Structure prediction request, 399 residues.
Amino acid sequence: MNIVKKIYCRAFQTVLHLALPFLPYRNPVILRSTAEIPGVLREQGIDSVLIVTDASLSGLGMTEPLCGVLKEAGISYTVFDETVPNPTVKNVEDARALYLQNGCRGLIAFGGGSPIDCAKAVGARIARPKKPIAGMAGILKVCKRIPYLVAIPTTAGTGSETTVTAVITDGDTRHKFTVNDFPLIPRCAVLDPDNTKGLPPFMTATTGMDAMTHAVEAFIGGSTTKSTRADALRAARLIVDNLPRAYADGADMEARSAMSEAAHLAGRAFSKSYVGYCHAVAHTLGGKYNIPHGLANAVLLPYVLHAYGDTVYGKLKKMAVAVGIADQSTPAPVAANAFIEKLEQMNREMGIPTTLKGIRREDVPALARKAEREANPLYPVPRLMTAVELERFYYDVME
Ligand SMILES: NC(=O)c1ccc[n+]([C@@H]2O[C@H](COP(=O)([O-])OP(=O)(O)OC[C@H]3O[C@@H](n4cnc5c(N)ncnc54)[C@H](O)[C@@H]3O)[C@@H](O)[C@H]2O)c1
Ligand SMILES: [Fe+2]
Prediction:
């Protein structure tokens, strides 16, 4: 990367880092059960909500307990269950139309990152009716309070229930973009591991490795704070200890509960400290080929960490110590490599491949340019890379 661009990126990141203490970050109120939701809605004077979910979850009957408690409390609800994985602009517009038609006053997102992000984007569109959601891509473009949003995660991965981000895909161009602004942080999050109990093993593994990617990318970036470092290290430890257990036995509620906490902590960490090139590349793969987000990150992360080389040895050593595979006396390069090997071993043992199907060689330069535009100058990555340098990751994982 040329020196002028490098200076621009680092200056941009420094300004955002210095501004951190003055920005209106907040944490959602944490509830432990959907049964607590009517009380919270009543306090807000909300008597009609849109539930945003997806077809598999409603088909499995998973939204029924939620609908039951709302009905019993006399709160009317409309269900939008057409959210697709990697939710689209059309999903957002369809759900928004339903919200308006039914005079809804609040939003409940029930599902993985896809329904939660869709609900956030619906909120943004309600707040800014004249601005298309793609026009809010980037940072600080919502700028208005969105309707009250309760997020109920059913995966332990994205941490979207606590982040400033919504990730949406333009169904026509297959461009996946992020909208990042403070009003998008849900007001309330229900962390009930029972909702993740039915998540199949492979989905448990890949969404869990998404959470690991949040923890790692937040920790190794240049915009951390004492609290994001602590959250990221704790999340990594919980994931190393519990993800293999949740994968092996989905009914292991201690492991499920630890994973819900880990995903939440990792989300909180990256919401302030950002992600990095692994996510930027994963977003382009999710947009273009619909590759599941967690799978893309899980496969890419070891390659990206190797490419950062000695710039991340010190920080990865801290992660290795935190997860219990190195100690203070371990030389940094050895500990860093042990940490990357640990990720590779976890992937292997949970059936996650080292390559991804469907990437077309001729698409790579354009995808790498998109990833570069998402990441630079926003993500405070340990080592800046150009679009041409990012191309290697697509070739690395191409089957
Ligand atoms: N907003 C953020 O901060 C943030 C962070 C990371 C990723 N994301 C985005 O989130 C999306 C991915 O979300 P995700 O990984 O949670 O998956 P998802 O929401 O796309 O769900 C994937 C599949 O798992 C199923 N599923 C979810 N929970 C289940 C359960 N308990 N039992 C059975 N099936 C279940 C869903 O029906 C769906 O078919 C991507 O679009 C990604 O870009 C957002
Ligand atoms: Fe992610």
Summary: The pocket of fe (ii) ion (ligand 2) is lined by residues 158, 210, 213-214, 279, 293, 297 (CB under 6 Å).
